[in-house]
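[#protein-structures] MJ: dropping Probable nicotinate-nucleotide adenylyltransferase here for a structure pass
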Amino acid sequence: MRQIALFGGTFDPPHVGHLTVCHAVLDQLEVDEVWLMPTYQPPHKEPARASFDHRVAMLHTLVRNEEQIRVTTIESERQGLSYTVDTIKDLQHRYPNDTFYFVIGGDMVDYLPKWYGIEELRSLIQFVGVSRPGSLFRDQTVQQIKMEDVDVSSTSIRQQLAQMSQPDGLPVSVLDYIKEHHLYEC
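AK: finished. structure tokens for Probable nicotinate-nucleotide adenylyltransferase:
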């Protein structure tokens, strides 16, 4: 029986901050693996700038030397809007002997009551919030992981790429992929 932490996101593009979250979860939660789970079509955000296939390829590039971190494309199989409750049910059906945790940023903890199907979701899975400076963690049902502050975001990386400047927090391998495929107006 494996203990697996699911870390969902748009990953548009993936960066070192995402890896830092994975390492904090592996160290503090003591799970066997972290699965990066890119959303196919996030219900609460603008559509991703890069296609699902490009985001998956960039994630594979990001984690190619990480033994305990893998990428799952489960959300692309259903297509349409990606609701976490449906994904969790699907994963539990496919892997009935594994235990799953769902990793969210500390900024999302207070937003959880607005998630689609949250009461059912809470009965299915343990949420793990990654605490950053300023995270309030009012919801005591969310397990807390502490992490160093990493000042990098996908939004700032896309802006830096559009301005033709060297992006902060983007591994060279991911930057090379972006340039090769002319993503983000690069």
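MJ: nice. The chain has a mean pLDDT of 90.
AK: one more thing. The helical segments are 16-29, 52-62, 74-78, 84-94, 118-124, 154-162, 172-180.
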